[in-house]
Amino acid sequence: MRDAGNAPYANLLAETELKRLQKNPSSISVVRSNLEDFVEQRNGIVPADIYGRIALLDLMGTTNQDSFEKDIQKAIDTDPKDPFYYILWALYKESVYDHYGAEAMADQALRLDGRHWPTYYVRSIAKGFRNSTRKTMADCDTAIKRGGRNYSYVLAYRARLERVFAGRHDYVDFEPNDHDDTINSTINGFYRDVAQLKRKIKK
């Protein structure tokens, strides 16, 4: 199904709508509608990337949980071996403060690809906001070492960890906006960087 939906136009559409969103951040509903129109025109036979982008737009906007779960499930059904879609689900769970649920979904992604750096990053977020100090730092450092060093939102989160986990016995609370800022910057960054963050498993 993934190959059948590998329409060349899909990449062009995704890039066009990304530029629209970057130019006007309030155009989420328009971008989402345009992607959904594309899905409808192709009778649902589109790359998983399109469903993943729609799910990310759900996270950016005010779309309800049912809509997000429907969209992300379509992405997973289309490409069940790509860990990226499982970490989007983990991000959703973390956005509603379900730290353990987010961590479990990230663990599921790691079973698909144990070297996928965005998964370590998202799992680090889940662990960090439930105050699992040592494991949080280890996951974040793994993410940075394997590719996350090139992404500003990863480095910003690492800086927050350095402030909060100043030492093994020197822990201070996150600031009130740390959680939502981390989640929002990650969601927006993931949407912008989808093409670089997805990782296919060779058959």
What does it look like?
With 203 residues, the chain is mainly α. The chain has eleven helices and two strands; from the N terminus they run αααααααααββαα. The chain has helices at residues 8-23, 28-41, 48-60, 65-78, 83-95, 99-112, 117-128, 133-145, 152-164, 178-192, 194-197, and strands spanning 165-167, 170-171. Strands 1-2 form a two-stranded antiparallel sheet. A hairpin with a 2-residue loop joins strand 1 (165-167) and strand 2 (170-171). The longest helix is centred in the N-terminal third of the chain and has 16 residues, at 8-23. The relative contact order is 0.11. The model is unreliable at 1-5 (pLDDT under 50).
Structural class of the secondary structure composition? mainly alpha
Shape: globular
Q: What distance lies between the first and last C-alpha atoms, to the nearest angstrom?
A: 15 Å
Question: How many DSSP E strands?
Answer: 2
Per DSSP, the total helix count is: 11
User: What is the alpha-carbon Rg in Å?
Assistant: 17 Å
Order of strands side by side in the largest beta sheet?
Answer: 1-2
Which H/E pattern describes the elements? HHHHHHHHHEEHH
What order do the helices and strands come in, and which of them pair?
Layout lengths: L7 H16 L4 H14 L6 H13 L4 H14 L4 H13 L3 H14 L4 H12 L4 H13 L6 H13 E3 L2 E2 L6 H15 L1 H4 L6
Helix pairs in contact: 1-2, 2-3, 3-4, 3-10, 4-5, 5-6, 5-7, 5-10, 6-7, 7-8, 8-9, 9-10
